Amino acid sequence: MTTTLFTDTQQFADWLATKRDSTIVGFVPTMGALHEGHGSLFELARSQCDLVVASIYVNNLQFNSSSDYDRYPRTLDEDVAMCQSRSVDAVWAPSQLDLFPDGQQLLTTGENALEYEGRDRPGHFVGVATVVDRLLSIVAPDRMYLGAKDHQQISVITSMCGQLHQYVNIVRCPTIREHDGLAISSRNRFLTQRGRSQAPIISLALQHMIETWRAGETEPTILIAQATSELQNIKGATVHYIAVLDGNEMQLSMSVKQGDTAIIAVSIDNVRLIDNMQFVNV
Q: Quick one: DSSP state of residue 86?
C-alpha cells in the first residue's frame, strides 16, 4: 500500500470523509522524528483498525524555549517512509496557520497537569491539550494510540477527551526500549556518547524499585531514596523528580501496591529524559 501525505487540512478532511462508512479509524498523533516507539503504535493501530492516520505537527506551544523548538528534528521524508513501512494509510502534516486559521485558543487543564512535567515546564500541558483537541476535532477517530512513556501526558489528554471527545477510545501502548533498557525517545539523539552510556541507569533504578517492592517494601519514600541514590552515579545529571503514583492516576500512592506507577525525570547533558514503570508481580 501507499501512504498518502496531506499538508492541506481541508484536503485531508475531504479525503477522510470519503472513508468513514463502516470504518474504524485509528489515530496516532506525533511530532515527527519518528522512531520504533511510534512504529509500535502504528503496528497496533493497524492490527485493530480499518484505517490508520498519523499526524506530524511540531507543537510550538509545548516547548518552554524557542531554542528547544528550533532544534527539534524535522524529518518528514524519513517519517513518511516509516509510516509507509508500517502500512499507515495517511500522514497529515499541517502548518500552524493551516491547523489554527483563526488563531490558537488555549484550553485550560486540570490538577493532573500541575505537578511533575507541568511544574517544571509551565504551559506544556496547555499546549498539548490545545493541539490534541484540534487534531481530534478534524480526525474524529474511534481510537487514539498513545505511548505509556508519557504517563502524565496520557492522564491530561484522557481528562480533556472525557470533556470534549468522549467518543475516542484511548489505547495506552507499552513503552518500547533500547537493548539496554533506555526508553526510546526522539530526545536520545541529543545525548553525548558518555551520556548515552549512562542513561540506562534511569530504567535500571525504576526496575530496582519494583524488585525491592516485590521483596516486601511498600513505603514509597524508601523506594524513592533507593532510586535517588542509584541516579547519583550519573555524573552531572539532574534528578527533577521521582514519585510513586496511585495506579494510572496522578495522585501519590501512600503504600505501594500492584498497578501503581513509578515516574521519573532526569536531565543528562541538559537533555530531559522521562520514564515510568508499573509495580506488577511477575
A: T
Query: What are the pLDDT digits (tens) for 60-99?
Result: 988 888 888 898 999 999 999 999 999 999 999 999 999 9
CATH superfamily label, 4-173: HUPs (3.40.50.620)
Q: Are 153 and 128 in contact (CB under 8 A)?
A: yes
**Residue closest to 46 by CA, chosen among 1, 80, 13, 15:** 1
Question: What is the Cα–Cα distance from 250 to 245, expressed in whole angstroms?
Answer: 6
Are the C-beta atoms of residues 145 and 171 closer than 8 Å to each other?
A: yes
The domain ranges of the chain are 4-173, 186-277
Choosing from 35, 38, 151, 179, the catalytic residue is: 38
Contacts of 69 (CB under 8 A, 6+ apart): 58, 60, 63
CATH topology of domain 186-277: Pantoate--beta-alanine Ligase; Chain: A,domain 2 (3.30.1300)
Residues 179-189 pLDDT 10s:
999 999 999 99
pLDDT tens by residue, 136-193: 999 999 999 999 999 999 999 999 999 999 999 999 999 999 999 999 999 999 999 9
Decide: 257 and 234 in contact? Cβ < 8 Å: no
179 catalytic residue (yes or no) = no
